[in-house]
Amino acid sequence: MKEKKMMMLGPPGAGKGTQAKALAMMFKIPQVSTGDMLRAAKQNKTELGLKAAAFMDAGDLVPDEVVIGIVEERLKADDAVEGYILDGFPRTVVQAEAMEQKGIELSYVWNIQVPDEEVVRRLSGRRTCPTCGTLYHIEFNPTSEEGLCDKDGTELMQRDDDKPEVILNRLDVYKEKTQPLIDFYRQRNLLIDVEGGSKPPKEVFRVIVQQIEK
Ligand code: AP5
Prior knowledge:
This protein is an alpha/beta fold. The chain is 47% helix and 14% strand. BIS(adenosine)-5'-pentaphosphate (AP5) binds next to helix 1, helix 2, helix 3, helix 6 and strand 6.
């Protein structure tokens, strides 16, 4: 079996975070989500967070050099020695090239394919638990008690960038800046397409694990 150095690629709302969390739990390797790291920095009003906030709220990408630095630091931690799941990074060809130059390896790139209208449905209904990070969807994955996390009862929140006008910009940014990575990783024989628009999360997960265990 190959090393578990994975990357989740796909449009906003494709289910990258959902699958990355499940894979991290199964293989006991960290989910390295640049979105989560930047949101935490923003919430804690750190220097990084203050720099990133305006880009994130508009649905634009944070400058490459900022993101490359935080991922490089994160991957030095002991828990990432055996493998990792990059979720939301790299997001541009510049980031992907910088990663290669720094010797950060990948063995699988999961390209989760979801049509635009499904992206909009998923993001506008997404809710997150600020305490434990569990993801829900008001329609596809509702909580037992409306608005409260099933695991710890915390009131769920909606992300600032899940507003309709910001979602549309995120989709445009994905097509312009991130979609070129599909060819980039196909050329390197790392890309595996996963149909993620019409299957529930558990089914998408089953398909990914089957590929890993091949
Ligand atoms: P980030 O947090 O990475 O956001 P994103 O890529 O837009 O992706 P999302 O987190 O919105 O979606 P997802 O694919 O993880 O889907 P999820 O599993 O949550 O980035 C946010 C911002 O940070 C960026 O806009 C940028 O500003 C900045 N940033 C981050 N990384 C950067 C980088 N490398 N460079 C520069 N800037 C960067 O699922 C969505 C919903 O759908 C959930 O409700 C879920 O329950 C539901 N769902 C999931 N799978 C399914 C399914 N199969 N069927 C039905 N529902 C499903």
